[in-house]
Amino acid sequence: MRNLVIEPTSKTPKVILNADLGIFEITGRSIPEDAIGFYRKVLDWIEEYSKNPLTDTTFKFQLEYFNTSSSKCLLDIFRKLERMHKNGHKVSIRWHYDADDEDMAETGQDYQALLDVPFELVPV
Amino acid sequence: MSQDKHAFVEETAFLEEARSKIEVVGLSPEAWREAYAKVIDNYERLLKVVEVLTHQATQLENKLEKARAQLELQKKALSTEVEGLEKQIQIQQKEVHKKAQERDILYDRMGKTRMMLIVVFAVLLVVVSFMVYYLFVDTARMIELVKQIHGIETK
User: Which of A45, B105, B115, B141 gives 20 to 30 Å between its CA and that of B51?
Assistant: First the structure.
């Protein structure tokens, strides 16, 4: 399947979804006006990927700031990954956050509590 | 807002599905129980999502409020700095004005001194001219004058 790479802007994060190299990352700032439109491509890509995933999929998230719409989109991504996990695939999520950013740590904890998928909090 | 509506596509689809179940006639109690359990599951999940989103929205509001307060502080600090700079400019302007006045006075004095020097030089020139004239051109007259002076003095 084709890889998905979206370069970052001042309002959108960098997205690397590379099944060949096993890199799955969303990093940066996410405050797009149309978060749903932005994450649609990501969700579609994951949906397609979930049909035939790698043996081990580790998704890295490292966001410095994001709006509420993006948060809902992230939840949708997590749900898809959770579904993959429930379907017997090895999936894990790594939530990287600035060690000084308590809010981002809390957000990670919120997601962690909500999901039934390995979810690791990684202070950086 | 309309864009945000699309953020709940799955939830909306489930709602429609649940709603359509009511229309179905002759559903077995087992099927009803199953459908109801699904509604509860989805409702519970949605409630958790709402809790998370509400919590994050509050965090964002707090962040914005902090940023606003910080901006306010920076604005005040900048205003104080600008006021200080304006005062300094006023002081500097007064200083420049004072210096300009001092310079004018100095130029005035220099002008007067120059004029005096010219006059002194002119007088000296006249005196020297007379001396040169009587010493080298009209020596006889010079001697006569000296004698006359000497005579007056001896008298």
Answer: A45
